[in-house]
Design a protein that fits this description.
This protein is 23% helix and 33% strand. It has 2 helices and 6 strands; from the N terminus they run H-E-H-E-E-E-E-E. It has a single domain, classed as hypothetical protein PF0899 fold. The strands form 2 sheets. The chain has a 3-stranded mixed β-sheet with strand order 2-1-6, covered by helices on one side.
Length: 107
């Protein structure tokens, strides 16, 4: 969450806003983090900053992969899942493995 706060502070310097009211984060299911832990950490790292009173919205993003063999897009539940279409042993992860700032409400 400190990296999220760093990104918010960098944007605040560029865009010259002084208060953050809401932060919307997309959290990929493959990130391996507990949503409750993110919310707790957000409250801690934002204390004394322009985001101290911000509301945190967490949106879960499903994992998405592409099979190297059949090239089909699929949903996976881990990095080692086989392709559900053809059974190939390796699926390239193309989504759901990041935490992204989706939206900021600021003044």
């Amino acid at each position: 969450m400190s990296a999220v706060l760093d990104a918010i502070m960098e944007q605040a310097a560029r865009e010259r806003f002084s208060q953050v009211h809401r932060v919307s984060l997309e959290v990929g299911e493959l990130c391996g983090v507990a949503v409750e832990a993110l919310a707790f950490c957000f409250d801690i790292v934002t204390q004394g900053t322009i985001a101290a009173d911000a509301h945190l919205d967490l949106v879960s993003v499903p994992d998405e992969g592409v099979c190297q063999r059949c090239q089909r897009h699929c949903t996976v539940s881990s990095r080692v899942d086989p392709c559900p279409s053809c059974g190939a042993g390796y699926v390239d992860i193309i989504g759901g493995d990041q935490i992204l700032i989706k939206e900021l409400e600021v003044e």
